[in-house]
Amino acid sequence: MSLHVDVIVIGAGPAGLSAAACLGEMGLNVLTLDEQSRPGGQIYRNIEEAPRENLHVLGESYTKGLAVARRFRKSSAAYASGASVWQVEPDGRVCYSQDGKSRQIRANYIIVATGAMERPMPIPGWQLPGVMGAGAVNNLSKEAGLIPSGDVVLAGSGPLLLLEATLLIKKGVHIAAILETTPRIPPATAFPHGPRALLRPDFLWEGVNMLREIKAAKVPHYQGVRHIRALGRERFERVEALCGKETLNIPASLLMVHFGVIPSTHIFRQTGCHMTWKADQRYWHPACDAWGRTNFERIFAAGDGAGVSGGLAARYKGELAALEVARCLGIIPAYQRDALALPLKKELKKDGHPRPLVDAIYAPRAEHFVFEDSTVLCRCENVTVGAVRKAVSEGARELNEVKIMTRSGMGPCQGRMCGPALAEVVSAAAFLSPEQTGLLNIRPPLRPVPLGEIAAMELDEIRESGNWLLDAKK
Amino acid sequence: MFKYAPENTQQLVTVTLDGEPVSLPAGMNVAAALLGIDQIISRISPASHKPCSPHCLMGVCYECLMEINGVNRQACMTPVSEGMVIRRNLTAPGGNLHFGEKETATPGEQITSQEEGPSMDDKTQGASA
Burial level of A464, CB count in 10 A (0-12/13-18/19+)? Predict the structure, then answer.
C-alpha cells in the first residue's frame, strides 16, 4: 500500500462514509480507517448485512444508512476495516494497527469522524455484571440479533433512552420499568426553543408517538427519578431509586443505563487540537470552523465527534468537510464548493430545528452529578469518588494531578470511561469549572498495541517539516 | 440474559473458550457471541478482583478485555474465527473468583496482585496512559 494518500478519513459512520464517498467521487485518493469490522459506525451498525426484521423495527433512521453505505462502496474510497488508529500528528501522519500489524501513513488532510459515545455516569453498582449501556444493547441487536431475555430496567435520561425502550417493546422484551431522571415538567430554559422546534412537526410527532407506544405497552415509566443504585452481590439483581417520596425497588436481570451522548475526543486531544467546553451539555469538543477545520490546517472534525447533533447532521457535516478539503487540494474552486455546500447547509439547518429544544429538555442536570463517596468512578483502576475528593482536599486542582495521585484514568480505557465524571467530581470539589480543571492528557498509543508490533513497523523517512502538498507535487 | 431473535441464522465455528470447545457464530464479535451463549463474565478485574461484563460493546470501556490467540484484546472489537483460542483467566490468582474477602483492596495490594497474574505481564498490550 502507498505510504501517502490525499485524504485519510477516520471512522466509517455517517460522517466518515459521506466524507470519504464525496472525496472518492471527485477522484481523490482516499483511505477510510475504521476500527469496526463493517462500515456504518454505531447508528448504521451492520447496515449492509442487517436482517429484514431489524430494518423494519429500527425504521427509517436506520435504513437511511443503506444509501450512505452503498454510495461509499460505489465510490473509489478505500476501506480498511478493523483498523485502530493509535496516533495522529498535526502534520498528517497517522499510525494504525490492523490484523496484528502497525503501519504509518501520511495524508495531506485528515478528516476525523470518530462519532459519539454514551456519557459514562458513575452510579452505585454500575460496575456490576449485568449493567450495560443502552447503546450496547442496541448494538447487540443490530450486530448479533441478540435481545434481552429477562426483565429489563432502563435508567437515565435522553431521547435515545426512550427510543431504545420502544425498540425493545417492538421486539417483545419485557421492560420492568423506565427510570427517567428528566423531570415531568420541562425546565423553563426549554420553552424559548419551542417555536423553532415547531418547524419540524414530523420530528415532534415521532417523539409523541414514542411516548404513546411506551404508554400503550403499560411499561411503568417514572420521571424525575433520583439516586439510582444498581444492587446485587456477584451480579446485578435489582435497582433502587427515589421518585418523589416513593422508594422504588425493582428486580431485573439487566439494567440499561443511558445519560445522553458526548463526542469521542481522544484523537483530537492526542493530536493537540484546541478543545472547547460546551457548558449547557457539559462536554468537550474540538474547536472548529463551519467546515470542520480544527486549529490545525490538515485536521478536520466531522460528525458527532465535533459536537453532538445526530446521525443525519453528521452526514452533512462529513460532506461539508470533504468539500473544503477538495477545495484545499485544488480539485474544486471556492465558488463550486459554496454552490455544493448550499443545499447541505440548508438541510443541516432544517435538521437542527428541534435540537435546541431536545438539548434543553435533556440537558445534564446538577443532580446527575451528586455522587456518593463509595461509588466507583474509575472502573479500570477501581478508584472511588471518595478517593478523588480526598486528592482534591489534599490540594489537587487539575485532572492530571488527580490522575497521578489516584490512578483514575490510568487503566486500559485510558480515561474514556472516567474522564467526564472525573472532571465533574474534581471541579465540584474544588469549586472550579471543568474548564479550569482541564482535560486528561492523552498520549499515543490511543489504543493498546503490542510493543512488538510497533518495533516491526516500517517507517517512512522522517521529514521534520515542510508542506506535504507541495512535496507531493514535486 | 440474552437470546437470539427468532429469524437469526448463523454459521457456527468451533473455538476454544477457557480450554473447552464451544460453537460461536463466525464473524460476530467475541463479546456479543459470548453473551449469546450466556457467558456474561468477560474477565476478573485486576484492580477490584471482581467479575466484569461488557459494558459499552463499542470499544470504549475495555471491560471485555480477554486473551484472544495469546494477546489481550477487546472482545467486542474482535470477530470470531475458526479455531480461535479465548482465555478469560477467570480463576487466575491475579483475579480469583473468591472475591468477597478482598472488598476494599488497598493500592499496594492491587499492584502486587497485578504482578502475580500469570499471563498479564508478558501479554498485556502496550502502554496505557
Answer: exposed
